[in-house]
């Protein structure tokens, strides 16, 4: 599945990274891994990251730090999916207020991970459509293109 951007799996938990990576690789993607907020920062500065499957806590910070850097990626705003063993409704609402795209619980079911990739891709396409809708039309370029197409 070509998403047009990279997927980052961010967690200090090796087993969590492995299980999510296995699911993503079955989808035909090549995810990138990070185990600290600092590594996330490096990856997001260098790559076009559209989706981050992110653990709640890191040795050098937490998911809020990753959310804070989500807009600095090469492609605009990465979607952060919080991965957690347990979350109560109040924590879910707080995570959403903090800018999290969605929350999925572990153990990680392949359908939930696949669904997050689909939702992130859909959100990306929606953003692109909105960006195009607000761009002004380049009429002279369109006329030149149309003239070439008609052989004028």
Task: Walk me through what this model shows.
With 152 residues, the protein is α/β, with parallel strands linked by helices. It is built from six helices and seven strands; from the N terminus they run βαβαβββαβαβαα. It has helices at residues 14-26, 37-46, 63-69, 89-97, 110-133, 139-150, and strands at residues 6-10, 32-34, 49-55, 57-58, 61-62, 79-84, 102-105. Helix 4 (89-97) links the parallel strand 6 (79-84) and strand 7 (102-105). The longest helix is centred in the C-terminal third of the chain and has 24 residues, at 110-133. The radius of gyration is 19 Å and the shape is elongated. It starts with 5 loop residues before the first strand and ends with a helix.
What is this structure's SSE topology?
Layout: E1 6-10, H1 14-26, E2 32-34, H2 37-46, E3 49-55, E4 57-58, E5 61-62, H3 63-69, E6 79-84, H4 89-97, E7 102-105, H5 110-133, H6 139-150
Parallel strand pairs: 1-2, 1-3, 3-6, 6-7
Antiparallel strand pairs: 4-5
Count of domains: 1
Strand segment tally: 7
What summary fits the major beta sheet?
A: 5 strands, parallel
Q: Treating each run of at least 4 consecutive H or I residues as one helix, how many helices?
A: 6
Order of helices and strands: EHEHEEEHEHEHH
CATH superfamily: Response regulator
Shape: elongated
Integer average pLDDT: 84
Placed side by side, the strands forming the largest sheet appear as 2-1-3-6-7
Helix content: 40-55%
Distance between the first and last residues' Cα: 41 Å
CATH topology: Rossmann fold
Low-confidence sequence ranges? none
Highest CATH level, the class: Alpha Beta
The helix/strand class is alpha/beta
Strand content: 15-25%
Any guess at the CATH architecture?
A: 3-Layer(aba) Sandwich
What is the radius of gyration computed over CA atoms, rounded to a whole number of angstroms?
19 Å
């Amino acid at each position: 599945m070509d998403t047009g951007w990279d997927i980052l799996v961010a967690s200090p938990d090796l087993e969590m990274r492995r299980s999510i990576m296995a699911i993503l690789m079955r989808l035909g993607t090549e995810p990138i891994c990070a185990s600290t907020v600092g590594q996330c920062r490096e990856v997001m500065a260098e790559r076009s990251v559209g989706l981050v499957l992110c653990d709640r806590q890191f040795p050098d910070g937490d998911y809020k730090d990753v959310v804070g850097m989500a807009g600095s990626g090469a492609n605009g705003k990465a979607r952060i999916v919080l991965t957690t063993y347990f979350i109560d409704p109040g924590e879910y609402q707080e995570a959403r207020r903090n800018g999290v795209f969605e929350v999925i619980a572990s153990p990680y079911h392949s359908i939930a991970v696949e669904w997050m990739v689909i939702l992130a891709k859909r959100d990306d396409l929606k953003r692109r459509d909105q960006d195009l809708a607000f761009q002004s039309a380049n009429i002279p370029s369109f006329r030149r293109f149309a003239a070439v197409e008609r052989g004028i």
